[in-house]
Amino acid sequence: MDMQMNFVRKLPVPKELKKQFPLGDEVRKIKEERDVIIKNIFEGKDNRFFLVIGPCSADNEEAVLDYMGRLVKVQEKVKDKIFIIPRVYTNKPRTKGTGYKGMLHQPNPQKDEDMLAGIIAIREMHTRVVKETGFTCAEEMLYPENHRYLSDLLAYVAIGARSVEDQFHRMVASGVGIPVGMKNPTSGDISVMMNSITAAQAKQKFLYRGWEVTTEGNPLAHAILRGYVDAYGRSHSNYHYEDLQNLIENYAISKLENPAVIVDCNHANSDKKYMEQIRIAKDVLHSCHVSSDIRNIVKGLMIESYIEDGAQSIGDGIYGKSITDPCLGWTKTEKLIFEIADAL
């Protein structure tokens, strides 16, 4: 008996989509310039602080562009201290496999899934962000084979807590050519994350999109601390001073290149209580002031933020409000960014 899958239609390969929706020289130049700055920050040649910030899921192009337009004005005011990489996450992991899986699956969250419309929609939205704001953005690499639909646009990639143990994600991360943040797994086992960074920094040879490929390894693969969940389903944080010192010790043993961590202020660190992100951000900055070793390794923060506070159900129709995890609204976000800049 053959596989029980219906092959609906063959989708364009990334090369075809890139030809159909090409980038202009201006967009390419912006990406190249930003890639150099980002690399310098991870290598310690530039001491600016990263903020990987934006909606939990980029579900509505107009609201996302509105948010990015606001964000770029704030970036201009804090550019000496902070370098912003906006979150434009179009693939959403679903723990139970059901529900809204992001714009890649559903360009319109209230309509059926449409993968062809999805790959076009995410490419066009990312392109618009670069053209209209000069930002190149962050994505979660949920499906490694889909990365190449956006590979000429992205500034940063995160590997989620449930993907970080997967061999394929680790190998693809070794060849994406931009910084890749490896989240600690949901169990909180730091050794899993460190092994993942080691694999991503190593040279690899594997099968990718029907090709045998080799990579040189990614020296900008690094840690993301996002908290964890215990055997009883309770959230525990791992952003505290002691957690960061422990990570420094793990890095020292591992002999990895460019030791770095981005602290995710939401998820299990905040128990998804979005307002806690403000306090957590300040707590991490306090640890940076207490210890120069921590300041050297903490390259930035990840914050979930949108136009309106909180979250809504699909169909509620509130403009700029998350339909996935609750986010910090714009007014609080703007205030927090200025407070972070003042504290650096």
Q: What's the short version?
A:
With 344 residues, this protein is α/β, with parallel strands linked by helices. The chain has 10 helices and 12 strands.
Q: What is the straight-line distance between the termini?
A: 62 Å
The order of strands across the largest sheet is 2-1-12-11-8-5-4-3
**N-to-C series of helices and strands:** HHEHEHEEHEHEEEEEHEHHEH
How much is the radius of gyration in Å?
19 Å
Count of DSSP-assigned helices: 10
Which segments are poorly predicted (pLDDT under 50) over 5 or more consecutive residues? none
- Globally, the shape reads globular
Query: How many β-strand runs?
Result: 12
* Class of secondary structure makeup: alpha/beta
Instruction: Classify the beta-strand content into a percent band.
Output: 15-25%
Largest sheet: 8 strands, parallel
Please characterize this protein's 3D structure.
By secondary structure, this protein is an alpha/beta fold. The protein has helices at residues 14-20, 25-42, 61-78, 115-133, 167-173, 190-201, 241-254, 276-290, 292-297, 330-343, and strands at residues 49-54, 82-86, 138-140, 156-159, 180-183, 204-208, 211-215, 221-225, 228-229, 235-236, 261-264, 298-304. Strands 2-1-12-11-8-5-4-3 form an 8-stranded parallel β-sheet, with helices on both faces. Strands 6-7 form a two-stranded antiparallel ribbon. Helix 3 links the parallel strand 1 (49-54) and strand 2 (82-86). Helix 3 runs parallel beside helix 10 and helix 5 (167-173) crosses helix 6. The chain is globular, with a radius of gyration of 19 Å. The mean pLDDT is 97.
